[in-house]
């Protein structure tokens, strides 16, 4: 019984701790993911703003051209290559107000930087999951916009590393917590129950008839010798007043002794009640037969 209780107690404590700590890890993971996503967007937007500021002085000239409305390769290299060197940036495009591509660069799978080709690269560009756009304005007039594609691979790896760190920390804390709480609960609950179990074995081993009553005078426990000596079954005596007046078996010495003891207690209690000004009716039994 004690071993089953100990195992059950350990399982309950472990389950509660697992649920609480798992919730904590999940909340931390979601918060970190949102923070890293926000940081990625801010970095992408910062790149778009820098490119927009770089092309702003010259984009009006391109806008006013009637033909060859693109930047030169040298200009594109000077403006875009510095931003494209970062592994975070996957591509940059500069558009006119009506969607005409002024210049663009894209990073291939082998990390090689090449000029953007609308015919070959547009489909791949649209499939990029992380893109951000920023307008190029002259006063109140918008004359173009910059579109930046970026990779969240670096942040995803950081997020996974952070998750494993959180899981490791939570696992260590959980083991310490479960172990400490288990020891405390075992000392508080299991040890007293072991003492009660020993006392119960000692009670069952007695040759004398013993019954235990609660504060209401009802029998809550008897030992095997009680049944042997009095011939009462457990179902006849448990949760009832002691059967010491009702039948011929009341003449047994055990019942006569118990009756005398209860009468003495009633006299003492009656005297106390009278002294305290409480009403007492002589001859009224303090037990009932069920």
Q: Give unreliable regions as ranges.
A: 270-290
Question: What is the helix fraction of residues, given as a range?
Answer: 55-70%
Distance between the termini: 33 Å
Largest β-sheet summary: 5 strands, antiparallel
- Output the CATH class name of the largest domain: Alpha Beta
Mean pLDDT: 76
* Count of helical stretches: 7
Counting copies of identical and different chains, the oligomeric state is single chain
Structural class: alpha+beta
Q: Largest sheet, order of strands side by side?
A: 3-2-1-5-4
Shape: rod-shaped
Please trace the helix and strand order, writing H or E for each element.
Answer: HHEEEHEEHEEHHH
CATH T-level fold name of the largest domain: Beta-Lactamase
Describe the model.
- With 290 residues, this protein is α+β, with helices and mostly antiparallel strands.
- It has 2 domains: 2-157, Beta-Lactamase, CATH 3.30.450; 211-275, no CATH class.
- Helix content is 59%, strand content 15%.
- It has 7 helices and 7 strands.
- The chain has helices spanning 2-64, 73-84, 118-126, 153-205, 224-230, 234-237, 253-275; strands spanning 89-96, 101-107, 113-115, 131-138, 141-150, 211-213, 219-222.
- The strands form 2 sheets. Strands 3-2-1-5-4 form a 5-stranded antiparallel sheet, sandwiched between helices.
- Helix 1 (2-64) packs antiparallel against helix 4.
- It is rod-shaped, with a radius of gyration of 44 Å.
- The two termini are 33 Å apart.
- The model is unreliable at 270-290 (pLDDT under 50).
């Amino acid at each position: 019984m004690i071993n089953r209780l100990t195992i059950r107690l350990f399982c309950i404590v472990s389950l509660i701790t697992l649920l609480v700590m798992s919730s904590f890890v999940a909340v931390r993971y979601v918060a970190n993911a949102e923070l890293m996503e926000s940081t990625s967007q801010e970095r992408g937007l910062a790149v778009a703003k820098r490119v927009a500021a770089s092309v702003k002085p010259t984009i009006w000239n391109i806008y006013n051209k009637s033909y060859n409305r693109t930047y030169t390769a040298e200009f594109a290299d000077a403006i875009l290559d510095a931003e494209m060197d970062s592994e975070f940036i996957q591509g940059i495009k500069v558009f006119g107000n009506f969607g005409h591509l002024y210049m663009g660069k894209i990073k291939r799978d082998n990390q090689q930087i090449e000029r953007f080709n609308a015919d070959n690269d547009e489909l791949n560009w649209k499939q990029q999951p992380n893109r951000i756009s920023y307008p190029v304005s002259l006063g109140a007039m918008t004359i173009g916009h910059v579109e930046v594609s970026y990779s969240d691979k670096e942040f995803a790896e950081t997020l996974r590393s952070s998750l494993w760190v959180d899981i490791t920390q939570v696992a260590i804390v959980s083991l310490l917590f479960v172990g400490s709480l288990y020891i405390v609960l075992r000392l508080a609950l299991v040890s007293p129950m072991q003492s009660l179990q020993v006392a119960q074995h000692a009670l069952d081993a007695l040759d004398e008839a013993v019954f235990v009553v609660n504060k209401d005078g009802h029998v809550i426990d008897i030992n095997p010798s009680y049944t042997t000596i009095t011939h009462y079954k457990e179902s006849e005596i448990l949760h009832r007043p002691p059967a010491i007046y009702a039948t011929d078996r009341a003449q047994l010495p055990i019942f006569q002794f118990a009756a005398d003891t209860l009468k003495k207690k009633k006299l003492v209690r009656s005297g106390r009640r009278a002294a305290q000004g409480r009403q007492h009716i002589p001859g009224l039994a303090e037990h009932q037969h069920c």
